[in-house]
Structure formats: C-alpha cells, structure tokens
Fold this sequence. Notes:
By secondary structure, this protein is mainly alpha-helical.
Amino acid sequence: MINDLLVSVMMVAGTFFMFLAGIGVLRMPDLLMRMHATTKAGTLGAGLVMLAVATHFLDAGVTARTLAIILFILLTAPVAAHAIGRAGYFVGVPLWDKMLKDDLKDRYDPDTHILHNPDDDKDT
C-alpha cells in the first residue's frame, strides 16, 4: 500500500515536471531559456519516473537499469543543452530583446569561431 502510494506520487510529480518542461518550450522567449527549462524540468521529471519504476518493481535488475538510465540522463542532458545553446548563439539565433546581460557579446569572432578570453589581455 505504501509502495503504491510512493510510486503514484513519484509518477505524478515526474509527469508534472515533464509537463512543465513542455510548457517551458512553448512559453520561454528565446532558445537559451527554452534549453534551461527543458533540461532542468525534463531531467527531474524523467528521473522521478525512473525512480517510480524502480520502486514499483523492486527487482535488482530493473533497479540497476533505472539507475543507469538516471545517471545517463544526468550526464548527457546538461552537455547536450550546452552544446545546442552554444551552437544556437554562434549561429546567430536572436536573444530575447529584454536580456539584461550578454557575456559573450564582443568576445566571439563569427569568422574564425574563436571565443576571446578577456583575461588573456591582462599583464601578469
């Protein structure tokens, strides 16, 4: 009984966070914010669903697989989001017009694809 309740709570919470990730894709104004919303909420949602699966079956093989899936998602989602966001910025996908700060502005050379580090200009 407690096991079923715990599984239900994790499944509902996981689907809620994945739903929020989908809403984030639709509602956020630019690529970088969309990537942030989907990576954070989607990873948490998928992790909770996988934990619910492991809790439901209570089998060593299933638990090992679900933990491997969670680890894989935790390792790959942020890296993929970073790569997609960086590629979008370098290709010239427009940022939100109300963005307050752009740390990469005037540091990226679009011809050579080199990012200039301002610390290189300091005399040591």
